[in-house]
Amino acid sequence: MDPKVIRGTSCWLGVDALRSVIRLFVMAAFLGYIMVWIMMPTNTFWLHWLPDIHAKTDSNYFGQQGANLLIYTFPVLLIATLGCLYLHLGKKCVDHDIAENSRWALWKRPVLVKGTLGIVSWIELSFLSMFFVLLVWSISAYLYGMFANITRQSAAKMGVQVWEAKLESVALMLGLVGNICLAFLFFPVTRGSSVLRLIGLTSESSIKYHIWLGHIVMTLFTAHGLCYIIFWAATHQSSEMLTWDEIGISNVAGELTLLSGLAMWATSFPRIRQKIFELFFYTHHLYILFIIFFVLHVGISYSCIMLPGFYLFLIDRYLRFLQSQQRVPLVAARLLPCEAVELNFSKASGLNYTPTSTLFINVPSISKLQWHPFTITSNSNTDPEKVSVVIKSEGSWSSTLYCKLSSPSLIHLEVSIEGPYGPTSTNFLRHDMLVMVSGGSGITPFISIIRELLFRANRMSSKTPRVLLISAFKKSLDVAMLDLLLPVSGTTSDISQLQLQIEVYVTRETEPTRENQKLLRTIWFNFKPNTLDVPVSAILGPNSWLWLGTIMSSSFVIFLLIIGILTRDYIQPIDHNTNMIYSYSARSALNMLFMCLSISMPATAAFLWNKKQATKEMRQIQNTAAPTPTTSPGSWFYNADRELEAFPHQSFVEATKVHYGERPNLRRMISECAGSSVGVLVSGPRKMRQEVAAICSSGLADNLHFESISFNW
């Protein structure tokens, strides 16, 4: 056997063994964390476990906050940090990850297709059921313990009736249970999260979990607030609504928390979110006030319950802010007659991403605040120097962008990006056949998949699945979207090496129109790049997972050092040596300030170091003489010499069949697919996704494995 193969195999085995050890540690920490949530509503936890932990951990450095940091915050940050190491090592075990993911194939089949929850798989339903059981258990355990201590005598001592005492207990219980949901609320929206990647999720696919949790959180917190208002009104304590105690719970801060949450909740319902997206988008920034007033409401010590999820989100949000301040050079743009545009950006050579990854794009000349997510259509193997996205003119922002790019007077377009974000492995390679169903601009995720398969079929000589692409468009003009299956610079790949069949359906026209003969235009931007421009690169460079783990661990250590010194030298002397008790609000404010400082220091240092490396690479790109087209008028030129029928390799055209005036019979086409494992991927309107999900879950065939690709705010 080749010595290189032996070394590679032993290296793989060593890495895999290390990852197995990390998995065990992560699983142990996760089970311990879940056990805390299960035991938290019980008297055993409050009367025995917690006092013992406080007795061993309370010190002059952290006070009572130390126990909560140890119980609630440390396990999650440990999981996230170990997850970063696990994912970094996983770059060498991609094929092994594919095999691992195949074990969960049956659990990923859809079980619920229509309804308020959307498309739900068996594994999602299982976790949702377990989470619901946890909430029911917490509610019943809290009420059992609280009501057991409420008698006529105890109520009389408080100066209230029994029902009023129970109402106050219910109000407290609703707040405590709401904190469980709040603790998990920020995990799905942490785009660069290692925790999500550990369980095979991305932020794009997890948005629905954030929506579910958000509705539950606001339902519980709204009921929590209403119960207290009714209690105060019934017991003639309405003045309590205006109290801001320096010690204990601050009611005014709680009311401001609830008002901020209600504003976000009211604008997040589908009708408002879809029709007035800007209102939803801007209102959702009230989460900053929501968190600040929540911490001031309950105090920093109790806030440690929800701290880990928000802490990881804060790191991710700050890194995204740093990345968004950069400008990336736009290399070329391809304008399609269907008013879609492909933007091609300069890319750092060390940036690798998987198919179906997304980029968030901001064009300051259109809006400095609006960021829009788009699927990357390029492939890091076939396009080593460029990254591209496709944008269809379907709203005011995208229409304005298309008009700008169509203008001959355009010389330079400033663009900022965040990302890319995507899955850690390409699970579709495990199938014998791929059926990709798209509607309209939903074809964009499949462009990157087809380019990846073309690369593997031609360069790696590896076995690739057969591909059936079913694309539905409203007008024949939209068929030009297929022109983007090839990169802007063309391709040297032999398309015949890939078993590709394309079925195109034009639903609202019975024959091609003259407008369909319009040509695709390519605009090359050949101006000298701005010195401040940097190529698209991972925010923390090629070893981003290692850098992220370092930022997580070092920032938390810095935070502990700062609050330890603050507590020992400033807060403890006031609490123990004077008749005063240090204000809970002031303590909470200082903790929030130092938390932000602790995160910003290592994150900024890591960002600047990697930016320095990216700048060096950009200078090398600028010094490399790029071919300048002779037909270029000024700083750009139009290349209008390609039509759909002029693709390289006639086999591509032969693989495409266009049907006019009809819709695809998806049930028949999918059920006829042969193979022991058929991956069915769908990207398009909600009804299309539900139809395909219903086919895969109907039991017609056991070899169908469903996956929905959508990202809809």
UniProtKB/TrEMBL annotation:
UniProt-annotated location(s): Membrane
Bilayer-crossing regions: 21-40, 69-90, 111-137, 170-190, 211-235, 247-266, 286-314, 433-454, 545-566, 586-609
Highest taxon in the source lineage: Eukaryota
InterPro entries: FAD-bd_8 (IPR013112), FAD-bd_FR_type (IPR017927), Fe3_Rdtase_TM_dom (IPR013130), Fe_red_NAD-bd_6 (IPR013121), FNR_nucleotide-bd (IPR039261), RBOH/FRE (IPR050369), Riboflavin_synthase-like_b-brl (IPR017938)
GO molecular-function terms, A-Z: ferric-chelate reductase (NADH) activity; metal ion binding
Keyword check for Transmembrane helix: yes
Membrane topology: Multi-pass membrane protein
Keyword Electron transport: yes
Pfam families associated with the record: FAD_binding_8, Ferric_reduct, NAD_binding_6
GO biological process, one term: monoatomic ion transport
Enzyme class: oxidoreductase
EC number of the protein: 1.16.1.7
GO CC aspect terms: plasma membrane
Obligatory cofactor(s): FAD
Keywords, ordered alphabetically: Electron transport, Ion transport, Iron, Membrane, Metal-binding, Oxidoreductase, Transmembrane, Transmembrane helix, Transport
Known catalytic reactions: 2 a Fe(II)-siderophore + NAD(+) + H(+) = 2 a Fe(III)-siderophore + NADH
Domain named FAD-binding FR-type: residues: 323-427
Family: Belongs to the ferric reductase (FRE) family.
Protein known as: ferric-chelate reductase (NADH)
Source lineage: Eukaryota, Viridiplantae, Streptophyta, Embryophyta, Tracheophyta
